[in-house]
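Lecture notes, part 5. Sequence design as translation. It can be helpful to think of inverse folding as translation between two languages: the language of shapes and the language of residues. The source text, in structure tokens, appears below.
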């Protein structure tokens, strides 16, 4: 069922794919991957509330930082910023070295009015990234390497919104410096 649902999803036959994903989770409500894949397909079709529902089922089966991150992303898509912030905080407690999760936490903090939390999360995002990029850190994927400007800009913007203009300018100017 799941394989057929994936194929139909890739072929952009959402209606048929959703029926098969639904059948797969009905057949085995404990299949974490089925719930996660169903949530992904629903999200791609812009059914964010349904995607949140499916991802929460996956989260209940496997309370990992990545699953909290995914539910938070579905909440962010629905403009439920304070709720997303709470899910990201729970995910960060389980996966404190996930730069994408920390970046989104900072964004959700900003959108929910928590500028101090936004700066803290942006700083932590950059710290994680720099640690991973250093010789002693883990090797970054090409995709992760490409996110450096986004993370630095996130820090600059968080500082700007928190009224730290000089520091924000310094951070943003660093984006124009050649990398070594």
């Amino acid at each position: 069922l799941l394989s057929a649902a994936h194929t139909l999803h890739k072929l952009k036959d959402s209606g048929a794919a959703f029926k098969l994903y639904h059948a797969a989770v009905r057949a085995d409500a404990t299949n974490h991957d089925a719930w996660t894949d169903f949530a992904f397909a629903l999200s791609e079709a812009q059914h964010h509330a349904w995607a949140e529902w499916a991802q929460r089922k996956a989260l209940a089966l496997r309370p990992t930082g990545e699953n909290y991150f995914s539910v938070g992303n579905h909440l962010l898509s629905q403009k439920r910023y304070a709720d997303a912030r709470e899910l990201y905080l729970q995910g960060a407690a389980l996966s404190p070295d996930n730069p994408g999760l920390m970046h989104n936490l900072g964004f959700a903090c900003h959108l929910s009015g928590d500028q101090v939390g936004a700066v803290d999360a942006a700083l932590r995002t950059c710290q994680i990234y720099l640690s991973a990029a250093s010789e002693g850190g883990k090797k970054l994927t090409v995709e992760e390497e490409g996110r450096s400007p986004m993370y630095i800009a996130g820090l600059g913007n968080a500082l700007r919104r928190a009224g730290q203009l000089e520091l924000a300018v310094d951070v943003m100017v660093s984006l124009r410096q050649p990398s070594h």
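The translated text above is only one of many valid answers, since several sequences can fold into similar shapes. The first helix runs from residue 2 to 10.
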